[in-house]
Design goal:
Low-confidence stretches: none
CATH class of the largest domain: Mainly Alpha
CATH architecture of the largest domain: Up-down Bundle
Number of helices: 10
Helix content: 40-55%
Strand content: 15-25%
CATH topology of the largest domain: Butyryl-CoA Dehydrogenase, subunit A, domain 3
Radius of gyration: 21 Å
Mean pLDDT: 95
Structural class: alpha+beta
Largest sheet: 4 strands, mixed
Shape: globular
Number of strands: 10
Distance between the termini: 38 Å
Length: 382
């Protein structure tokens, strides 16, 4: 079925190019990146050369001035081919918008060209060891000292944490604010800043190629000029950007589910048991029919949301539903598909195993699915 929102000739050409590069250059190297627990910096630079990074950025700063649909395509292709640990969707669709929407002209001029070229890899630092996703009660402090903020505290589970050159950091600038969320600001922190340090690359169950870290601030002096937007308005900015963050994660989830499904359809046609292909057994056919239904419904729902998001509609309930249900769908499809591979599905040499372990975190980050249900309930007036 042709998807109208992505049907232009320009977008088709872009997708074909992205797909070919992923299949020829990224997939063959990806296992090495998984073993190294990191995507090499050269891959980011190559992505920059291909025009994959921050395509929405203004041409003035080296971008294409393109729509979000280019990041949608990149997200779908990376997740579909099982190489989502190359976390370009985070860089493009989740972190860069903070700079684009709330940054000053001087900040954009300073940072955006590197974000586009791959010389400046981005990360978002919200979660803390004691509070997780409870952003309103974060404790990392930024104290004003003349023309600087002095940061003290720590963050955890920071995606791109080992490689990132620039962090959008949520900090407390007014410890006495009531309610607490009114004392939060966003500050850009350069990884070369004195007093900034990284912890080890965290050893995760899956999503291995994507580096994830703790980061620390010890009397880290950051120029006041690095404040994003207005002081104590950070929580509002985070809430505004979470709609796109959750939409991007749901887009990736649907694409990964489709990748799991297509991989398994091909496998069951060639794998034999009891004298016939697995594809001839009713259980196989029913499981894959169920998966196909879930994938199709997820994609149709998302295509509607993408259009509405591009029209600047407020979609708190809708994106919460998408993030919750489609990441659950991704995991269920990957689990059912792995089962059809039998013992081979549990072997790392079979890509279905990666689709399975990488799916698990999708229900946790970007706001856990329990939080998504709470948001949906609130939007229902409960």
């Amino acid at each position: 079925m042709e998807r109208k929102i992505l049907a232009s000739e320009e977008l088709r050409i872009f997708r074909d190019t992205v797909r070919e590069i992923i299949k020829s250059q990224i997939v063959p190297e990806y296992e090495k990146w998984e073993d190294a627990r990191m995507v090499p910096r050269e891959a980011w630079l190559e992505a920059g050369r291909q025009g994959w990074l921050c395509p929405e950025a203004s041409e003035e700063f080296g971008g294409m001035g393109a729509s979000l649909l280019y990041t949608v395509i990149l997200t779908e292709e990376l997740y579909y081919h099982g190489v989502s640990g190359f976390f370009i969707p985070l860089h493009n669709g989740i972190v860069y918008p903070y700079i684009d929407r709330f940054g000053t002209p001087e900040q954009k001029k300073k940072w955006t060209p590197g974000c586009v070229s791959g010389e400046t890899i981005l990360a978002l630092a919200m979660s803390e060891p004691g509070f997780g996703s409870d952003i309103a009660h974060l404790t990392t402090e930024a104290r004003r000292d003349g023309d600087y903020y002095v940061l003290n505290g720590s963050k955890t589970f920071i995606s791109n944490g080992q490689l990132a050159d620039l962090f959008v950091v949520a900090v407390r600038t007014d410890p006495k604010a009531e309610p607490a969320h009114r004392g939060i600001s966003l500050i850009l922190v350069d990884s070369n800043c004195k007093g900034f340090s990284r912890g080890k690359n965290l050893d995760k169950v899956g999503f291995h190629a994507q580096d994830t870290s703790e980061i620390f601030f010890e009397d880290c002096r950051v120029p006041v000029a690095n404040l994003l937007g207005k002081e104590n308005e950070g929580f509002k900015y985070l809430m505004q950007n979470l709609q796109q963050e959750r939409l991007v994660l749901a887009i990736g989830a649907a694409a990964a589910a489709a990748g799991s499904l297509d991989l398994t359809v091909e496998y069951v046609k060639t794998r034999h048991a009891f004298g016939q292909p697995l594809s001839k057994f009713q259980n196989t056919r029913f499981k894959l029919a169920e998966a196909a239904a879930r994938v199709s419904l997820a994609q149709s729902y998302l295509d509607d949301l993408i259009v509405r998001h591009l029209n600047n509609e407020k979609l708190v309930k809708e994106v919460s539903i998408a993030k919750y249900w489609i990441t659950e769908t991704q995991f269920q499809v990957a689990d059912d598909c792995l089962q059809l591979f039998g013992g081979y599905g549990y072997m790392r040499e079979y890509p279905i195993s990666r689709y399975f372990v990488d799916a698990r975190v999708q229900r946790v980050y970007g706001g856990s699915n329990e939080i998504m249900k709470e948001l949906i309930a609130r939007e229902l007036g409960l």
